[in-house]
Amino acid sequence: MQQEDNNTFLAPPLATPAVPAAAASPRPMRFEFIGSGSEYFRIWIVNALLTIVTLGIYSAWAKVRTMQYFYRNTRLDGASFDYHGRATAILKGRAIVFGMAMLFQLSSHVSLLLALALGLALAAVFPLLLVRSLRFRMANSSYRGLRFAFTGGDAQAYKVFLLWPVLTVLTLYALAPLAHQRFKQYQHDNTRFGTAPFGISATAGGFYGVYLRAFGMMVAVVALTALAGSLLGAQMSAGVASPSAVSAVAAVIGFYIALLAVGPFFMARLQNLVWNHTTLAPHAFRSEVKASRLLFIFVTNMIANVLTLGLFLPFARVRSMRYRIESMTMLVAAPLDAFVAGETQQVGALGDAAVDWYDIDIAL
User: Fold this and answer.
1) Where does the record locate the signal sequence feature (predicted)?
2) What share of the chain is helix, strand, coil (3-state, %, to 5)?
């Protein structure tokens, strides 16, 4: 589940609990999602109405209810995940971000130099807020009563959330795949379940492969659509429309078609890349999301949303989430109940203390 440094509050080093010897071959254990669109619709509509009535204040409580619904309906080995975040912490985080944005907006009307100075100050603070948000999310996520944790440091956060994005822009996004790989590496390598560490071995080359294939698909779709438009324009009688105009319109249409097709492809390939290279202590994961199936879900969801004026949104989210979750398998190298029990003994009350230490979330 997901499923994004020297001042970090870290637990004392603890030995990873002993687990039974690994079996000859890992046992596949598929994730399940048991929620339904009708159940989530009731939560969604109440959240939407109360958020409007309270001018957005209730959105923090709405997020907690939504997170709890999706966590508690995600199951592995007969047990559900859970989310324990407090709405007040989320509200506090959003208030901080809103205040920062308003201050920057006002400063831009006063002085350009003041706005620049404030922008630099915000850039220096924002990575720290993002790290604390990751810690909050993990510390308030649990499975079978055992909490997750995020131990990434602040110095690494400045590289991931500031240095790499700046370099990405300066290189005209040529470094975007590398920046993305560094973020996932920071996120996964610093996440724990109890005291057991996650790890990721996906390389920058794998990310470049996903990005370049997606970019190539987009260019091909736009080019073919523009070519078809140009041929169509050439067949049209003079005075109705010039071939170049028809080709330009077709290219624009092709761009949106490409976005529609490439989005699911990118999400499917990226999920498979990340989770097929992720481990949890002796266990591994397998993701088998098919881009064609995800595209079908995306297109049919979009059509249903248009026909229902947006009321299908909660059903669409459940459909998409169910498919992506149930495409995941955990390759269990040792009995999972023994593993969780051993981790619980190692952590003790330490996890509960960490939950209160990072009392902020800015809704990553």
Assistant:
1) none
2) 65, 10, 25
| 61 alpha carbon, distance to own chain's centre | 20
Q: What is the pLDDT of residues 42-56, one digit of tens each?
A: 999 999 999 999 999
Measured from the Cβ of residue 176, the count of other Cβ atoms closer than 10 Å reads 18
Residue-range domain boundaries for the chain: 74-198+334-364
pTM: 0.83
Q: How many CB atoms lie within 10 A of CB 320?
A: 16
- Residue 341 corresponds to which tokens in the numbers above? 């029990």
Q: How far apart are CA 142 and CA 119, in angstroms?
A: 36
Interval 279-301 mean pLDDT: 95
Other C-beta atoms within 10 Å of 322: how many?
A: 19
Residue 158's CB: how many other CB atoms inside 10 A? 18
Amino acid identity for residue 14 in this structure: L
Query: Which positions ≥6 away from 285 have C-beta within 8 Å?
Result: 275, 276, 278, 279, 328, 329, 330, 331
Pinpoint the alpha helices (H) of 276-312: 291-307
Beta bridge partners of 148: 193
Helix axes 112-139, 350-357, angle to 10 degrees: 160
Q: How far is CA 238 from the centre of its chain?
A: 51
Q: Which is it for the CA torsion 333, 22, 197, 279, positive or negative?
A: negative
